[in-house]
Write a structure and sequence with these properties.
Chain B: InterPro entries: RlpA-like_sf. The complex is a heterodimer of chains A (207) and B (140). Chain A is 8% helix and 45% strand. Chain A contains 1 helix and 12 strands; from the N terminus they run H-E-E-E-E-E-E-E-E-E-E-E-E. Classes of the chains: A mainly beta (207), B mainly beta (140). Chains A and B meet through strand 1, strand 6, strand 8, strand 11 and strand 12 of A and strand 5 and helix 2 of B.
Chain lengths: 207, 140
């Protein structure tokens, strides 16, 4: 249970807000981005709140990375426009699995959540690189890949050593032998820009 | 239209892409309402229309979800963190029938059946995209 102060606002939330305010106004204190809770990739399931409800206006960035200048990612938005994402030493990075900023490459796609800074950058709390969550149908199964239909398009899914499967809502297992052609499958994974395939992190089938 | 606080539903939410995007999502299109955008706080509802309902069939999972069409506004709250995001319905989904009985839990309390899909912008406002699913309460 989160500690609360006399106003009913979680004490942890107060600290986060103060930290964020300092970051937003001070400019240089970009470590404040961690206040959004991105350090733990699965924090949404944690016992303690992962996100401060008071921080309702976090910034969101989407697009392809066109350049990396020091700790700043230059991002071309898919719908036009341009954004600059400031990475910090506490930014949570996901690329197939939790990672560090070194794995990010020009050409990658990303979704980023963060705090708008006075210089126009977004100090990133969390960056998800190439992440996709696709509603698909299994069209083919091979030893190291699955062939998927996503809408009208074919997608090759690469099976990794740690790819997990979930059957009928149950927990993850490394046993992929129960996948069947024709099944609807939700695929959480990472797009490979080099060959347009997807590395499958988790494949979920219903029945 | 402002987001309200009247309980509407509860269940799992997942996320999806729409509109202009990259990778496999590049051809996702604007969704059933034509204006869905991954970068906006949008969502997909299983009963956005009669045609939508016939595809998603939440009733097969015991969910008699009410009709809420394009432009409907909902307040989505993470069951445990309390983080909320106000969304506009711009698409049809998820296919609830494919995931009957699937549960997502936090703090030992679970929500069952996929009853909402959120865009990456909306989902990441209340949770982490790498989790894939969240237990939520929905208000209007």
């Amino acid at each position: 249970m989160n500690a609360r102060n006399t106003t009913g606002v979680p004490a942890e939330g107060m600290r986060r807000r103060r930290f964020l305010t300092t970051a937003a106004l001070g400019g240089a204190t970009i470590v404040g981005a961690s206040a959004l809770g991105g350090l733990d990739a699965d924090a949404a399931f944690a016992a303690e709140p992962s996100l401060d409800p008071a921080i309702a206006k976090s910034s969101f960035v989407e697009g392809r990375i066109t350049g990396i200048t020091g700790s700043v990612l230059e991002v071309a938005g898919s719908g036009g426009g341009h954004a600059r994402v400031q990475m910090t030493h506490v930014t949570s990075v996901w690329k197939v699995r939790p990672a560090t900023a070194e794995v990010i490459e020009v050409g990658d796609g990303l979704y980023a959540r963060g705090v708008p800074m006075p210089d126009g950058t977004v100090a990133a709390d969390a960056v998800w690189v190439n992440i996709v969550n696709l509603d698909t149908t299994i069209r083919g199964i091979a030893r190291n890949r699955v062939h998927l239909a996503h809408g009208q398009h074919e997608v090759v899914g690469n099976i990794l050593t740690d790819t997990g499967a979930s059957y009928a809502g149950r927990g993850l297992t490394s046993d992929l032998s129960r996948l069947r052609i024709g099944q609807s499958a939700q695929v959480l994974g990472a797009w490979r820009p080099s060959d347009d395939s997807v590395d499958v992190v988790r494949i979920s089938v219903g029945h | 239209m402002a987001c309200g606080s009247t309980s509407l539903w509860a269940g799992e939410t997942s996320w999806f892409c729409c509109g202009n995007s990259w990778g496999p999502c590049g051809s996702a299109g604007g969704g059933a309402c034509g204006n869905c955008q991954s970068s906006a706080h949008h969502g997909a509802w299983p009963n956005a229309s009669a045609n939508c309902f016939s595809i998603t069939r939440p009733d097969l999972c015991g969910e008699n979800i009410p009709r809420r069409g394009c432009g409907s506004v909902m307040n989505v709250r993470h069951q445990c963190s309390g983080a909320t995001v106000c969304i506009t319905i711009t698409d049809c989904g998820p296919r609830t029938k494919d995931w009957c009985g699937e549960a997502t839990c936090c703090n030992g309390a679970c929500r069952t059946n996929r009853v909402l899909d959120l865009t990456p912008a909306a989902f990441s406002a209340i949770g982490n995209l790498s989790s894939g699913k969240l237990p939520v309460y929905i208000y209007e």
